[in-house]
Backbone:
């Protein structure tokens, strides 16, 4: 696998393990996971004649898992390292999991289904991992919840504005005065939008 695929894989494995163990995911952990995910290949190039994946073994992984009991940061390192091994198990070359005890290469799938480095199948896997990483980061930082709360706040504000406008609306009253000089009583009719009231004015001699 290419380095960019391992970086994406290391980050997504770290997001999963921090979610399962309820560990707060920070930007530092994301950066650390991406860096550790390519270290096995760097060690091969630095200390081995070829990239034969001698450093991709379970012994290093077991040591890292033991160190998890010492410091929480080793959980991130172990998750990223484990992701590198898993992704290389999907390739046509496989991984020497038991090296140096055995040089047998282990693979996960049949030969026709294995992923060759640099092919379109690896690129498709990379883009899939990137989508998972983006979704995981957005969910971790509660971006979707923030969007929902913003939309809800906007709806509440609209309702409040409508209520305020309704309360400030003016009420117009139509007053009709009927005066008949031959009548002792004067009838005043007051109408508004909801009801009608009649007021009788009596003359006082």
Residues:
């Amino acid at each position: 696998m290419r380095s960019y695929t391992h970086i994406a894989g290391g980050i997504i494995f770290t997001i999963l393990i921090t979610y399962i163990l309820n560990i707060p995911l920070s930007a530092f952990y994301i950066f650390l996971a991406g860096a550790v995910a390519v270290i096995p290949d760097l060690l091969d190039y630095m200390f081995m004649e070829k990239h034969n994946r001698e450093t991709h073994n379970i012994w290093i992984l077991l040591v890292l898992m033991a160190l998890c009991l010492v410091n929480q940061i080793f959980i991130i390192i172990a998750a990223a390292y484990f992701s590198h091994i898993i992704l290389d198990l999907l390739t046509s070359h496989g991984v020497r999991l038991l090296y140096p005890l055995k040089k047998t290469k282990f693979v996960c799938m049949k030969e026709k289904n294995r992923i060759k480095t640099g092919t379109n199948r690896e690129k498709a896997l990379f883009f899939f991992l990137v989508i998972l990483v983006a979704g995981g980061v957005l969910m971790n930082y509660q971006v979707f919840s923030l969007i929902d709360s913003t939309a809800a706040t906007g709806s509440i504000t609209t309702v409040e504005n409508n209520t305020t406008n309704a309360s400030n609306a003016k009420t117009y009253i139509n007053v009709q005065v009927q005066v008949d000089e031959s009548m002792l009583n004067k009838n005043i009719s007051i109408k508004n939008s909801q009801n009608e009231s009649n007021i009788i004015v009596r003359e006082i001699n």
